[in-house]
Every structure is written in C-alpha cells, then in structure tokens.
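Chain and backbone:
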Amino acid sequence: MYAVLALLAHLCVGEYVRLTWNITYVQVNRDGHVDRLAIGVNNKLPIAPVYITQGDTLFLTVHNMLDVPTAIHAHGLVQTNMPYMDGSSMITQCGIPPNSSFTYEIRSNSQSGTFFLHSHHMGQLADGLRTPFIIREKYPLGYDEDVLVALEDWYATDSRDKLVELLAPDTNTPLSPTFPFGLINGFNGNDTKAVKFERGKKYRFRVLSMSTTEYWKFTIPGHKLEVVEADGVMCEPQLVDGLDLAPAQRYSVVVTARDSDEFNFVYNCTLYADFVPRIKGLNPRVYTGLIEYKQGAPIKHVEVEDQIKWADDVSMRALDNEAVFGVDRQIELAMRGFLTTNKRRLRRLGTLPYAEPHVPSIFTAMSMGALAMDSRVYGPQTQAYIIGFNQSVELVIKNTQGQTHSQHQHGGTFQIIERGPVDHSELEPPPDPRFSLDDVPKIPVRTFTGVPMRRDTIDVPPFSYVKVRLRMESGIWLHHCHLSPAHDVAGLSVTFVVAPDVMQRTLNIPRVFYEQCEMQGIKTEGNAAGNWGFDMTGLPPVPVEMPAPKAQGAQGAAQGAPAKALPKVPK
C-alpha cells in the first residue's frame, strides 16, 4: 500500500518552497554553562526546523556572511540527476565564498521522513550550522500528532580550534577527554517543554541525532515505541523499548498514549560515548522531560528492565519490499588509525587518510574525458572508487578499532545485509595497555531475513563489521564517518565516482558552480591537482605511516562487541 502511495506522490506535482538563510556568526550560551562563538542563521541559533511535503522542491538561498566558505548538505536526500546539489565541499562544489550567495534546489520527489540540513564544510556542523528537515508524507499514516525530538551534543570549543588540537603532531601526551552537554530541540536538555498526551491518541516521535561525536539513547518508560521509519525509509513496525542513535541517525516511532490520565510519565534522553572515561554526571549525561497526561498529576516512575529491547536495523524490514540486490562488485573498507612519521594522528578507511583534492572531484569527472574512468586522476588521498552505471556494490565495512563509528552514505541508502565480528588477526591493539584483545567480548553473526532494511547512516560497533549493498545514481558521492570533525576531517572518508562517462553525457552543471570556484582561485578542470593526465604536482606529499605496534593478548578467535560492552578508555 505504501509503495503505491509513494508512486502516486511521485507523480503529483508538489509546491515550490522558498527559504532564505543569512549565515552569520553568533555569540551564544546554549548549554547554560559556556559562552562561545557559533554559526547561526539570521543571527539566531538554534536554526528553525524546515518542513515541506512529499513532492515539494525546496529552494534554499544561502547568503554566506562568514569569513570562510560554507556549503549545505541535505542529509539523506537523493539528488536525482543533480549530484552537484549535494553540498559536499570540494567534492560536488567549491563551497559558497564569503560575502556571496547561492540557491540550492532540493527536490524531495518521492522521499519523505526525517532528515536534516547541515554544513558540509570542515567542522561547521559542530559549530551549530544544522537543523531538522522534515518531509511530511502526502497521505496521512494513521497517527494523531507529530513530536520532534532533535538531539545534539554541544562542545565549548570552536571546531577550528579543535581541529588544530586533533591534527597537530603528537607529543606522546594523550588528548584530554572532553564532555559535551546535550541539547534537545536546540536548548539545554534540562529545559525541555512538556509533551502533552491525550488518552488513546497516537503520537509520532521524530527522534533525530544531529550530534557530531556522541551517541544518544531515547526511552519513555511505561510506553512501547513502535518503529515505523529509519533514516527516511518506512519499515514494517518493530515494537521496542528504546532507541540507540549514532550521530546522524534518525527514527520515527509511534507511541500510543495510555487509557488513563491518573499519572504523568518521563522520557529519558541519555548522551554517552565509549571513547572517553565513564564519569558520573559527565559521561553519560541523562536528561529527562515530562509526558503530561494531566497538569499536576503525580509522576509515575517506571523501573527500567535490565534487558531493554533496542531498535535493531538488521532485523527490520523495509515496507516497500525492495528485493535484495545481487553483487556486481565487493569493496572492503576498514577503519584504522594512521600515525604518520611526524606523529600526526590521522585515520583511514581505504589505503590512505582522505584529504580534499585541489579540484572538486565532480569537475575532474566532467573534464578528464576517458581518463575519468581511472581512479588515479582523482588523487591519491581522495580515495576514489570507480563504480559502473547501475552497478550493485556490496560494502564490507570493518571496524578494527575499540571505538564505535557512524558511517553515512551520500547519494542513496544501503540495504543492511549482515553484522558480525572482525577476524582477530585484523584488529588494532587497544591504546590503553591495561587492556588486550583478549578482553573483546563476543557477538554472533546476524543476517537479514526476507526483505532487508535500508538506511543512509549505520552504526559500526567496535571490532565488528557490517555488510551493506547499494546502487547509486551517476555522480560523485562521499562515504564517510559522521563523527565530525574528529573522524571525517581526520581521514575517515572515501569517494564513490559513479559512472563518470554517463555524467559527461548527461550532466549540465550550472554556470554558478564554476563562478564559485573562480572567486576562490580554484580550478574547475583537470585532475585532483589541476593538471592533466596523472601529474599530481602541487598536491601535498602523501603521508607516510609509522609501523604499527604488535597486538597484545593471546592469539585465537576473537569476536566483535557492541560499544557499551567494551572497556572505556580515553580518546
């Protein structure tokens, strides 16, 4: 039924929604503790959520009033036939120069659900340039009210200062752990408004994590959550007790109000991380809000069971019953640390840490003729994989480290096929000498049944792998860790160059994209260095990795582990 409705919505002509953002610096105190410089819209932060309806087109005009470039990404939206509108700085555009303007055209087509808009330039996401983007279904889905729960982590440090600290040569002194505060709907998590319930009504909670680094858990003790959407993909209902959200993940859950208004209840939002020490009041931080059935009614505190059933994407089933893809090609990606010979702590997903090219990859694909089919022209650190037109790709994403990662795919969603442990021989030794690989708990291999679930952002727990399959539109699409800026800017990204030969025949990139580059002195033709052929003169030297230390612990079969089961060690 929903597949039919989606098709009808696709055939209907939607509205044009026009919005203007003046992107500015703002001085704010969002957490009630620290005043800091941040990035907002129209001199305000938080940024108002954006709502459109399935089939609509959003025209977002951005006036960049910062002193650096910016770019806006519609997270989770498939930019059909318009990959240049993806908003990825130095991949699909040069970025919007300071004191200039640009209008993004974001077509929802048949997509609906819970998304968000955020900067995709350096660490601006962490500085506040993010807001929910909700695409309402054209036809009602059987609930009474929408409730938005937008979750953020908020650090006291400007992202540019943080990047300097993260990427500076190591002095053998561990970085001091930092503990962000939690924001709910843009404000301190302790200052949330009550959610009013009426007996017997159904409420769709749209719970989205716009966090940069830390994870969130969401529960409403005394109520079950019926998962109906993950990352903009409708699913067969899954009844759970709570949600465990990685950065950039989103869920919709339908909650049915109780038949009695004798008591009020609380909802819990817990901000936590597995890569900093567990300290009471700092990690985790617990925020609560009121589920109000009747003003003044006593609060009923429900004891939480030891075994909470969390939403589980590998066991979900996509509602549209899309058949599992075959495999035309398999690509293996592994998250690994990369300590350079000058002791910079980088990370890699492919063979080298990702680094931006000097020419946006989309222009390399459009200008290099037949050589655009050769990954070498995109530069050694762009980590480009050439994908054929309509090719089905299986990604095997391995987390060899003791920290969890949140992997996001631009340009589409992937089918979740399997989760399991990484082989013991591939694991990185823990950074804390008090622990060894023998301490890694065991998890089983689990595969989808029937119809695989799809989503665009997937959590990969420590020492585990996930297999996903996807088909992408022709274009240039990033695949990266969404822990920002600590992981993506440090190198945990690769580039999928999909059918560049088709791009050359079919794409007509608007002139304004070339003008953006010209204003910044950035070339719009040639290879990653702006040269022809394979001449990469002008790119920075490729980093050289120090030899890895030997793993500790006995050899043997080790299994992966969920993040919360691992020893907590400093980053």
